[in-house]
């Protein structure tokens, strides 16, 4: 059972990976949940586990957030809640890799719609209620990839930079309202993300973290009173984020390009 009763939490991309782990930890923290992803069967299984183990109410919304219809469905469910959200975790995201001129145009555009447009759309929908209520936390799952251009992941890195800058701006705007905004920036996390159109698997010896560890980080951020808006997560991000700042845009992009260049 949950330790304490809390307000509603939204988690997008909750059917797998980081989002599923965040949703279960929020349920354990006592939040009733609205969980969103395209795969409704996985959301139903997650909802059943969260209800059974933590006794919280869960509403699953099977929706494609890269499409306006999907976002309308989510906004509709949020509007039916009797209370404003306490936490919104905008985590759903995809990443493409390869030479940009070889990549599928529709998929690149979908990546921007999901990683950027859906984040702005849902943040715009939930933040006014949080501000009116004088409390709430917006968490955007950005990436360590946000801090530099990454050749052969050009669209992905740009979308993650968008998310990080968006949160930094919101953080300033929200000061004094009781509402906080965070961009979580993990380095490599072993999830299905790296099997989806990804050019290469993560090297076996690369220091990574688990989806559960990122989720635990999210909960620690929520539990703390501090409001540093950009949060590095995992063994690599606390090194690579300052390093890219030190090296500068051009050298960082050149180095990343050497690593990510397709070998075939
Ligand atoms: N894995 C990493 O190394 C890593 C590192 C840094 C940041 N991140 C970020 O972490 C977030 C989660 O990634 P992950 O590693 O957990 O990946 P994942 O295991 O592939 O999970 C992605 C989640 O997003 C959902 N999703 C994908 N397309 C969607 C759409 N059009 N509409 C609604 N939901 C959609 C998926 O559900 P459905 O397929 O059921 O829709 C799934 O629940 C992403 O924003 C990613 O950029 C990942």
What does this structure look like?
Strands 3-2-1-4-5-6-7 form a seven-stranded parallel sheet, sandwiched between helices. The model has no long low-confidence stretch (mean pLDDT 94). Strand 6 (179-186), helix 6 (211-223) and strand 7 form a beta-alpha-beta unit. By secondary structure, it is α/β, with parallel strands linked by helices. It has one domain (9-260): 3-Layer(aba) Sandwich (Rossmann fold), CATH 3.40.50. It has eight helices and seven strands; from the N terminus they run βαβαβαβαβαβαβαα. Residues 13-19, 37-39, 42, 64-66, 91-95, 114, 141, 143, 186, 188-189, 191-193, 196, 211 line the site of NADP nicotinamide-adenine-dinucleotide phosphate. NADP nicotinamide-adenine-dinucleotide phosphate binds at residues 13-19, 37-39, 42, 64-66, 91-95, 114, 141, 143, 186, 188-189, 191-193, 196, 211.
The number of helices is 8
> What would CATH call the architecture?
3-Layer(aba) Sandwich
Q: Spans with pLDDT under 50 lasting ≥5 residues? A: none
CATH topology, which one? Rossmann fold
The CATH class: Alpha Beta
Q: Can you summarize the main beta sheet?
A: 7 strands, parallel
SS-based structural class?
alpha/beta
- Give me the CATH superfamily: NAD(P)-binding Rossmann-like Domain
Ligand inventory: NADP nicotinamide-adenine-dinucleotide phosphate
Helix content: 40-55%
Sheet with most strands: strand arrangement: 3-2-1-4-5-6-7
Ends apart, CA distance between termini: 52 Å
> Which overall shape is indicated by the principal axes computed on the Cα atoms?
globular
Name the helix and strand elements from N-terminus to C-terminus, one letter apiece.
EHEHEHEHEHEHEHH
